[in-house]
Amino acid sequence: MAKLHFKYGAMNSGKSDTLIKTAYNYDERGLATLTVKPALDTKGEDWVVARGGARRRVDVLAHAGEDLREHVLRSARERELLPLHCVLVDEAQFLEPDQIDQLFLIAKRDGISVICYGLRTDFRTATFPGAQRLFELADNVEKLPTMCRCGSQAEFNCRRVGERFVFEGEQVAIDGEDSGAVTYMSLCGPCFLDEQTTAGVRVLG
């Protein structure tokens, strides 16, 4: 039986790189895949771009409100990728909960494995709606570890504007997309608490 997988981790945990390597493994064995990315993620446009420089073309850009199952199956037919063996989803936290349900149906009704990669929480430590639905539905959940600046395991995605950490604002701000110089750093719990104290904002504690 095909399964819905969720591989999550903080920023810089190698999620996109792992997706690209997984796609290559399928390609090497002659097994068809489709790569999906939310249109909300404008970084890299219609490419999955790993921080190490690896790239893979996106087959389906998922827009808000659309039926993702229908889009994926239509794209597989048009690209002559049937039988389709796996759907690989980058930045899955940006999908709508209904679209996660549709990915579940792809696995359980259409018999196609679905592997989603994404963040668990935003810079305010709140769960993304898409990630929350994946935790509720996924057959397998796997954490991809990454390191904080202090050497401990990082858990939190912290937003910076310029050199300053910020703890208020819209849930989604794509790094590098505008002149606001939004970037992110993955921090462990103690380092996160230190930065919120410095900023004079209490998110935790």
Mind explaining what this structure looks like?
The chain is α/β, with parallel strands linked by helices. It contains five helices and eleven strands. The chain has helices at 15-28, 68-78, 97-108, 129-137, 189-199, and strands at 4-8, 32-38, 47-49, 55-57, 60-62, 84-89, 113-118, 140-143, 156-161, 164-166, 182-187. Strands 5-2-6-7-1-8 form a six-stranded parallel β-sheet, sandwiched between helices. β9 and β10 (164-166) form a beta hairpin. α3 runs parallel beside α4 (129-137). The longest helix is centred in the first third of the chain and has 14 residues, at 15-28. The termini are far apart.
Short description:
The chain has 205 residues and is of the alpha/beta class. The chain has helices at residues 15-28, 68-78, 97-108, 129-137, 189-199, and strands at residues 4-8, 32-38, 47-49, 55-57, 60-62, 84-89, 113-118, 140-143, 156-161, 164-166, 182-187. It is built from five helices and eleven strands; from the N terminus they run βαββββαβαβαββββα.
Order of helices and strands: EHEEEEHEHEHEEEEH
**Spatial strand arrangement across the major sheet:** 5-2-6-7-1-8
Outline the biggest β-sheet: 6 strands, parallel
Overall 3D shape? elongated
Helix/strand-derived category reads: alpha/beta
Rg calc:
17 Å
* CATH homologous superfamily placement of the largest domain: P-loop containing nucleotide triphosphate hydrolases
What is the CATH third-level topology name of the largest domain? Rossmann fold
Give the mean pLDDT: 92
Strand fraction: 25-35%
| Tally of individual helices | 5
CATH class of the largest domain: Alpha Beta
Uncertain regions spanning at least 5 consecutive residues: none
Count up the domains: 2
**Second rung of CATH, namely the architecture of the largest domain:** 3-Layer(aba) Sandwich
